[in-house]
Amino acid sequence: MAVLSRCTEDPGAPARGHVLLVDEPRLLDASTARRRIAGHLTELDVSYPTAPSTPDVALVCDAPEAAARLSGQGVPVVYLHCRHRATELPAVPAVTRLVQRPDWLSERPTSSQQPLNAVQLLAPRRLTRNRSRSGCLVLVSAYEADDAERADFTDTFLRPAAAEAVHRTGHCDVVCDTGFTAVRKALGPVAGVRVHRAADVDFDALHAAAETFLASPTLTAVSLAWARNAPLTLLPPLGPDQRDLADRLRRLVPIEVAEDARRPAVWTPHPGPWGPLEPDDDDRREAQRIARRVRQLALVPTAF
What we know:
Blueprint: E1 18-23, H1 28-38, E2 45-47, E3 57-61, H2 64-72, E4 77-81, E5 96-100, E6 117-119, E7 136-140, H3 147-169, E8 172-176, H4 180-187, E9 193-197, H5 203-209, E10 212-215, H6 219-227, E11 233-234, H7 240-252, H8 264-267, H9 286-299
Parallel strand pairs: 1-2, 1-3, 3-4, 4-5, 5-6, 7-8, 7-10, 8-9, 10-11
Organism: Streptomyces glebosus
InterPro entries: CGA_synth-rel
Protein name: CGA synthase-related protein
């Protein structure tokens, strides 16, 4: 990260506050959280992923080293643990520590650092899908997997699943957070497939336009389907955290895991599985609430 220095402000200009956004770009849930909160910070000066001057506050999403560096520079940090973990959360220096943990995951491990405040799922700003939808969105998070596991997943499942998606729905958008180059090369021969890096594409919009949705067991995938009351089929989990989330989710709602993309159930999921976890309007406002915390800290540092 570049060395930060204070910029000269116009004394006659209204105070806006300057916030630096930092995430782990290889992690789907971190990119999602950063974007969804940033969408409610329009009245602040926002920098990403580095700042030309010392920010008033930093919002850091699953990037503990950046949080430590910024805290060491005297920047107040609002830290969000974005992804589901089956083990204890890492200790992170920050003035405010949050963990994305919906009520139905309330028994998850905590951090030795206190306080740690749980927040609900971060919903997309748009809560509806397109009236006319086509194609398939496949949302892959391979952050936890090593190179061999990612390669095996791509060869044995992702490539045939993408081909099946094109056959059934006409076209397929594959979004991945880690291993983008290898996935794009592996899926290149499959006609009708487009591969995107998660950090570079609006997958909220892709989901709104897609007829079917297959996704790794992540809080991003759950938040999209949950907030929009849309069907979801889970991809085979990669790593212990995804396996834990998939197991917990399937105990609550009727969701298939697509072990074999040729099975009809993969493509005809339950049309509205979210009854037991049905959100109300307030549940969908978590991103706004976090943005409000950041805004208060940027404009009135003593608020915390």
